[in-house]
Amino acid sequence: MHTTLFDGQLTVMVGDITQLEADVIVNAANSSLLGGGGVDGAIHRAAGSKLLQACQAVREHDWPEGLPTGEVALTPGFDLPARYIIHTVGPVYSASQDRSTELAACYRNALALADIKNMRSIAFPAISTGIYGYPREAANRIILKVMEEELPRRPELTVILCFFNETDADLFFDIAKGKR
């Protein structure tokens, strides 16, 4: 699947984010920035050992207590096709606490950083929908709202939403087309 929205500015696809040739890919990191499972682990493995060293330096110099939820940090892409990695920590889902603002901040802050650094292409995974348990439909509605608000302000930036499977990509597309 490979579908575009917002006059071609947003591409929805299924694939391996570590294989994408973009200026920057977004890592759904944990606050330690030292690697983990899911997307985070895949990005660390594909980028090579220098990524861990760069993340340790970010921790030492910028975020000694760990990267807070919704904030972003930039490192080189090292062995990835992407030149850079923006690391962000998504919220752990809670049925009793609204964390939609934190999830939206992950996307907004990554878009803003890419724009500030004059990047022209950015690829996102589905942040917080894996082990962090954020419901996919709710997360996709947040992503869509952020894109509707932010993309018109950044006409030079192209965005790829890289989903792990077709079911998740189809869900996003259905929400975007008002079918859900």
Work out the helicity level: 25-40%
Structural class: alpha/beta
Integer-rounded radius of gyration: 15 Å
Task: Name the average pLDDT.
Answer: 96
What is the 3D form? Answer: globular
User: Describe the biggest sheet?
Assistant: 7 strands, mixed
Q: How are strands sequenced across the largest beta sheet?
A: 1-2-7-6-3-5-4
**Would you list the SSEs in sequence order as H and E?**
EEEHHEEHEHEH
Strand content: 15-25%
Unreliable sequence segments? none
Separate helix tally? 5
Give a count of the beta strands, DSSP E runs of length 2 or more: 7
Measured distance between first and last alpha carbons = 19 Å
Written description of the protein model:
It is a single chain. The protein is an alpha/beta fold. Helix content is 37%, strand content 20%. It is built from five helices and seven strands, in the order βββααββαβαβα. A seven-stranded mixed beta sheet has the order 1-2-7-6-3-5-4, sandwiched between helices. α3 (100-116) runs parallel beside α4 and α4 packs across α5 (166-176). The protein is globular, with a radius of gyration of 15 Å. The two termini are 19 Å apart.
Which properties best describe this structure?
5 helices; single chain; seven-stranded mixed β-sheet
Quick description:
With 180 residues, this protein is of the alpha/beta class.
